[in-house]
């Protein structure tokens, strides 16, 4: 590693990385996650307060940022190899982190910090729908499109360059990659 890179990596843990905070509801098995700028007490406890009720018991690791939380709180001490303490454990959210890491290493190989929130949203949705049938997923997708409007003009602005490319491929007798066109159009829905 060059010294210029090594100088950037001074510090511990999240130096040079983008932090993501997440919670998993033990009753519904649904995950909520988002990208955060820091992992300080104010940020993490604010996330917990925004996504839980006052009666919710929160189970965490021993990080200092969780101390003094305005919720019933139990923790485990990973630093001494304690992974379960009665009902307290973080195994549920760890399964979500595993899915996110597999997507990072196996499919995408790189998450741009600029678009990290989109990747997190994609994998959160995938995790929360993992037990659903295809028909249910399609129904949910169509349901989210209600009230959204994609005009012909918006569609043509994006699709027209692809159509020109297809015409050129037909004239030049070269293969057409329909997957690229389908994905480009599919992701237009906001």
Describe this structure as you would to a colleague:
- This protein is globular.
- It starts with a helix and ends with a helix.
- The chain has helices at residues 3-8, 41-51, 91-108, 116-128, 134-145, 152-172, 178-186; strands at 19-24, 31-36, 58-60, 73-75, 84-85, 88-89.
- It has 190 residues and is mainly alpha-helical.
- The chain contains seven helices and six strands; from the N terminus they run αββαββββααααα.
- The longest helix is centred in the C-terminal third of the chain and has 21 residues, at 152-172.
- The strands form three sheets. A two-stranded antiparallel ribbon has the order 1-2. A two-stranded parallel ribbon has the order 3-4. Strands 5-6 form a two-stranded antiparallel sheet.
- A hairpin with a 2-residue loop joins strand 5 (84-85) and strand 6 (88-89).
- Helices cover 47% and strands 12% of the residues.
- The model is unreliable at 176-190 (pLDDT under 50).
- Helix 3 (91-108) packs across helix 4 (116-128).
């Amino acid at each position: 590693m060059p010294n210029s890179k090594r100088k950037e990596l001074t510090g511990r843990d999240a130096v040079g990385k983008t932090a993501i905070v997440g919670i998993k509801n033990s009753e519904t098995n649904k995950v909520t996650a988002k990208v955060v700028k820091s992992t300080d007490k104010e940020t993490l406890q604010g996330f917990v307060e925004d996504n839980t009720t006052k009666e919710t018991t929160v189970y965490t690791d021993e990080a200092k940022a969780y101390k003094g939380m305005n919720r019933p709180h139990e923790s485990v001490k990973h630093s001494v190899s304690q992974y379960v303490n009665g009902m307290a454990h973080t195994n549920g959210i760890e399964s979500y982190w595993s899915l996110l890491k597999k997507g990072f290493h196996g499919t995408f190989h790189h998450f741009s910090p600029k678009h990290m929130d989109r990747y997190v949203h994609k994998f959160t949705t995938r995790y929360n729908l993992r037990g659903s049938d295809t028909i249910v997923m399609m129904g949910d997708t169509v349901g989210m499109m209600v009230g959204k409007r994609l005009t012909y003009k918006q569609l043509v602005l994006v699709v027209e360059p692809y159509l020109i490319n297809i015409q050129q491929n037909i004239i030049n007798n070269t293969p057409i990659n329909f997957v690229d066109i389908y994905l480009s159009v599919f992701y237009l829905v906001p």
